[in-house]
């Protein structure tokens, strides 16, 4: 059973009845190469977000998520006004896909991401 809490932008996977595994890294526990990958992702995300702080939080939020979970989170974040008004869904897909965070093609992305709500 999988539970996604978009309010806290985290995911929890049911490991066995009564036990949960949280798919997040906190603090400096990240392996060094993952930290470098996250820095590259953050660098490429900064122009797409309203703040560098929000762009910096995004890699930890999507770590361990499946493609569909990522698109659901992106829709929630768009509705909350986290992304720049100039950001297009394909801009975000390109960054996530190029760096291997979102593995499905752009057609799947476009079918699931909706940047239509006026803010």
Please tell me how large the radius of gyration is: 14 Å
Q: Which residue ranges are poorly predicted, with pLDDT under 50 across at least 5 consecutive positions?
A: 1-28
Measured as a percent range, the helix fraction is: 40-55%
Task: Note the gap between the termini.
Answer: 34 Å
Number of strands: 3
- Gross morphology: globular
Q: How is the main sheet built? A: 3 strands, antiparallel
N-to-C SSE series? EEEHHHHH
How much is the average pLDDT?
A: 79
Q: What's the tally of helices?
A: 5
Strand order of the largest sheet: 1-2-3
Detailed description of the structure:
α1 packs across α2. The chain has 119 residues and is α+β, with helices and mostly antiparallel strands. It has a domain at 30-112. β1 (2-5) and β2 (10-16) form a beta hairpin. Residues 1-28 have low confidence and may be disordered. The protein is built from 5 helices and 3 strands. The relative contact order is 0.14. Strands 1-2-3 form a 3-stranded antiparallel β-sheet, with no helix packed on it.
């Amino acid at each position: 059973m999988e539970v996604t809490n978009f309010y806290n932008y985290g995911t929890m996977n049911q490991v066995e009845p009564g036990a949960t595994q949280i798919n997040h890294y906190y603090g400096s526990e990240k392996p060094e190469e993952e930290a470098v990958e996250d820095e590259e992702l953050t660098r490429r995300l900064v122009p797409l977000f309203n703040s560098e702080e929000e762009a910096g939080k995004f890699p930890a939020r999507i770590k361990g998520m499946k493609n569909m979970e990522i698109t659901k989170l992106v829709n929630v974040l768009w509705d909350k006004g986290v992304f720049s008004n100039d950001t297009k869904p394909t801009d975000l897909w390109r960054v996530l896909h190029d760096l291997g965070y979102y593995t499905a093609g752009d057609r799947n992305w476009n079918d699931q991401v909706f940047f239509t709500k006026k803010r």
